[in-house]
Amino acid sequence: MEHLDTGTASRVVVAGVRIAVALMWIQNVNWKRPPDFGRDADRGLYKFTNDAVLHPVVAPFSWFVERVVLPNFTLFGYATLLLEFSLGAFLLAGLLTRLWAVIGIVQTAAITMSVLNAPNEWQWSYYLMFAAHFVLLASAAGRVAGLDAILRPRWRRSGSRLAALALKAS
Amino acid sequence: MTGAPRRSGPDDLLRNRGLGVSAATAAGALFTLYDYTPLNFAQVDGRIAVLLLVLGVVGAAGAVLGRGVVLVGVGAVLLLLAFVRLVTYGHGDGLIGGGSSTAALFAGLGLAHLGIAVAARPLAAAERDRRDPG
Questions:
Q1: Which of A45, A64, B12, B42 has a CB 3.0–4.6 Å from the CB of B105, allowing a cystine?
Q2: Helix locations, A30-96, DSSP H
Q3: Of A30, A32, A95, the CB nearest to B43
Q4: Structure pTM?
């Protein structure tokens, strides 16, 4: 079996993809605006979340959004803000990158199930988001120009339970 | 030319990585130069640009001088600013302006500064122990 290319160009591209995905979350966290997250004007995060009910993609997810998320929308809004803020920050620093890639995949799934059937959406946006996060997960992208690269030797030598978890998450 | 590999120690790590992340911090100020939405990844106005430039220069000086504590300080300031902006977002301009994208940028850069300082510190201690086991 042929091995993947691990030369300089490949490593630069992997680091570039990680930083690009981080910047995507950083730019898009900005329109998740508290305290109402668009509920009063039916726009922003509220509008896109409501699309899961108006234009269902997966019936159980639509039921969950209608019965659980929308009635508790402020809590959900703050959770989304914190999650996407953290995705941007941790992926930018390249810290615990595999863990945050998995979280990014889960968040991409939630977004996809909300808006895939909404008008004027380009479905490949979401397929490409999945692909980019799977690349970060498979390549452990924080090990190139990220904190994972310089902290993993410390964690490996530490032997503590927390360090073992950090090794798995990076 | 000999084939001897060049060893990179904790000082190199602090200097090279520290300079890199400090340069990235200062480069964040460039976001203020244009108002083109598709490339406006983080909200950076004049005040924040000056802040990023100052923190970038201070961090770079710390990296060049091999002072990890300076990187810790810059990282702590960035994380504090990120926290303050995040909790005040949606309630006016806050202390420094910007948005939650600014806060996320601060947090990422702050984590990077702290992580580099942490990674360099125990390596330095380990090397000292090897040189002077007694």
A1: B42
A2: 44-54, 59-64, 73-93
A3: A30
A4: 0.92
User: B13 to chain A: nearest residue by CA?
Assistant: A150
pLDDT per residue as tens digits for the range B27-71: 999 988 877 788 889 999 999 999 999 999 999 999 999 999 999
Question: Token digits for A147?
Answer: 């904190």
The first and second tokens of residue B33, run together, are 């130069």
Cβ contact B115–A147 (<8 Å):
yes
Cα angle B20-B24-B30, degrees, rounded to a multiple of 5: 150
CA angle B126, B23, B122 (to 5 degrees): 10
Report d(CA B82, CA A93) in Å as an integer.
14
ipTM of the complex: 0.94
What digits encode the pLDDT tens for the residues B99-119? 999 999 999 999 999 999 999
Q: What is the CA radius of gyration of chain A?
A: 18
Which residues have a Cβ under 8 Å from the Cβ of A21 and sit 6 or more positions away?
A91, A104, A132, A133, A136
- Chain B hits for A82, CB-CB cut-off 8 Å, are 86
> For residues B90 and A60, what is the distance between their CA atoms, to the nearest angstrom?
32
Distance from CA of B20 to the nearest CA of A (A): 9
Q: Tell me the H-state helices in chain B.
A: 10-27, 46-65, 68-88, 100-131
Two tokens, residue B4: 């001897």
